[in-house]
Amino acid sequence: MSFGSKSQVRWGFTLTVVDLPGLISVPNDDQDEEDVETVQELVDLYAANPRTIILAVVQAGNDIANQGIIRKSRHFDKAGQRTVGVITKPDLINRGTEKRIALLAKNLDTTKLQLGYFLVKNPTPTELASGITPDQRQRGEVTFFQFSPWKEQGLAMDRVGILSLRSYLQTLLDQHMERELPKVQEEVKNLMKENRNGDRSSRRREAVHWAS
């Protein structure tokens, strides 16, 4: 799962992407109970922040209803305004299950998100090892979804592929910033007011100290 937030700098806005480890359901030889709790707390920390965009990344071959990140996003983002589903590894599912994944990608399955899902195909380990370029990755992804069995699924192409996801996130982040910016301004005003009040109190205490 990934989380994104925007901050303003001199030249505009910057996006910070935090790629967190996947949620661990059961401890094992490599990950003990403390690891499970640490990951849960870390995910909760970011998901609870109202200025965070949640990318709920789920594998196509897994049961979406049992995905912990979906439950967490619904808990921390009850309005569903900052959670986007991303379905990965459609090339690894069993043949014949494409329709089920397509329904999820079209947000027509039982596990719906307010902002819906995107379906992406990442390069294979072999492709990564061979040094695949971004352009090659893009062409390979487009080709994958243009041919059977995916071309029969009626997928909305603006919801397929990494470029579509990137474009959507840019718009979503702009909208999210517009909603959050007034709150940030108000918080800054309150902090400045508190600092001024604190300075006055400090000066009064100092004056009393020297007068005594």
Tags for this entry?
212 residues; alpha/beta; five-stranded mixed beta sheet
Strands, helices and their partners?
Layout: E1 2-9, E2 12-19, H1 33-47, E3 53-59, H2 68-76, E4 83-88, H3 98-105, E5 117-119, H4 125-129, H5 134-146, H6 162-211
Parallel strand pairs: 3-4, 4-5
Antiparallel strand pairs: 1-2, 1-3
Explain what you see.
The protein is of the alpha/beta class. The protein is built from six helices and five strands, in the order E-E-H-E-H-E-H-E-H-H-H. The protein has a five-stranded mixed sheet with strand order 2-1-3-4-5, sandwiched between helices. Strand 4 (83-88), helix 3 (98-105) and strand 5 (117-119) form a beta-alpha-beta unit. The model is unreliable at 5-12 (pLDDT under 50).
Summarize the structure.
This protein is α/β, with parallel strands linked by helices.
* N-to-C order of helices and strands: EEHEHEHEHHH
Q: For the residues shown, what is the average pLDDT?
A: 84
Regarding quaternary structure, what we see is single chain
Radius of gyration: 23 Å
What is the count of helical runs? 6
